[in-house]
Amino acid sequence: QVQLVESGGGLVQAGGSLRLSCAASGRTFSIYAMGWFRQGPGKEREFVATISRSGGWTDYADSVLGRFTISRDNAKNTVFLQMDSLKPQDTAVYYCAAGRRPSSGPGDYTNWGQGTQVTVFS
Fold first, then answer.
1. pLDDT digits (tens), the chain, 122 positions
2. Which long-range contacts does 59-62 make (Cβ < 8 Å, 24+ apart)?
3. How far apart are CA 73 and CA 77, in angstroms?
4. Rounded distance, CA 62 to CA 111, Å?
5. 58 SS3 class
6. Is the CB of residue 122 less than 8 Å from the CB of residue 14?
7. Strand 92-99 to 33-39 pairing
8. What's the CA gap between 49 and 59, in Å, rounded?
9. Residues 6+ apart with CB under 8 A from 66
């Protein structure tokens, strides 16, 4: 099992940037694909981005493509989400998740963090 802790959320003006981090416990981080999901007010949890175990393959939701970048540092057991050109509709609680394969489906992930709030104001 791996435990995940997100950080880096906050309040930012539209057009600004934030970098989220997700630190994983344990020595087995590199065997997990990682994903970022978000849940906005009154909305269901939705896929944001995913990255393969090696970091060599990534995938994004259409709504964030070209604005967000997922990356990982296996030596530091951390996955990142660089968010640029933020919009008010990006406001949500952002969750990182670990799974056996990169996927846009939340059911493919077995471990979840507690979430970090991102609020974008115009």
1. 899 999 999 999 999 999 999 999 977 888 999 999 999 999 999 999 999 999 999 999 999 999 999 999 999 999 999 999 999 999 999 999 999 999 999 999 999 999 999 999 99
2. 59/102, 59/104, 61/104
3. 6
4. 24
5. strand
6. yes
7. antiparallel
8. 6
9. none
